[in-house]
UniProtKB/TrEMBL annotation:
Protein name as annotated: Protein LIGHT-DEPENDENT SHORT HYPOCOTYLS 4
Annotated stretches, region: Disordered: 1-39, 155-187
GO cellular component, one term: nucleus
Species assigned in the record: Sesamum angustifolium
Superkingdom of origin organism: Eukaryota
Span of domain ALOG: 37-164
Amino acid sequence: MDSPSSFPQVESSNSENTGAAAFSAGTSSSSSSSLSRYENQKRRDWNTFCQYLKNHRPPLALSRCSGAHVLEFLRYLDQFGKTKVHNPICPFYGHPNPPAPCPCPLRQAWGSLDALIGRLRAAYEENGGNPETNPFGARAVRLYLREVRDLQSKARGVSYEKKKRKRLPQQPNAVAPPHQPPSPGEG
């Protein structure tokens, strides 16, 4: 009777989380108000993933979880996505703002998946997982995320360029003043 469809529904946690799905396991804690938004989200994501493992057929222990299981979880989450990803045969393929509706599927946005994996990777280690065996850091997961990013970038006509870090301008007061030659008559 327990199947992946019995998993918690995706909920939007707030308006700042545009396009990024909040995966809620339906659990709450009185200490949640003292945690940051990130920590609350990480806890909800972790609970949802643990519920996914519990409902997996056959049930799967966290210690037996691999990168392949993480990919299965990410594909499962696509059904709750809100991002239109055009197929190459769609007339709107490559258009960020299509002028009309189309039957292309809704999927999880790459940025949402990338952030989710980052939170789950941290939660895995915080919950006693060995960093060397962290399934969320598996090569297959990194390659999948890169593939999703590239596919969505082409399909939606949106560039996912890495943001360049702004370098702080060097303050003139922080540097020693240049050496001034002695004035005439000194010396």
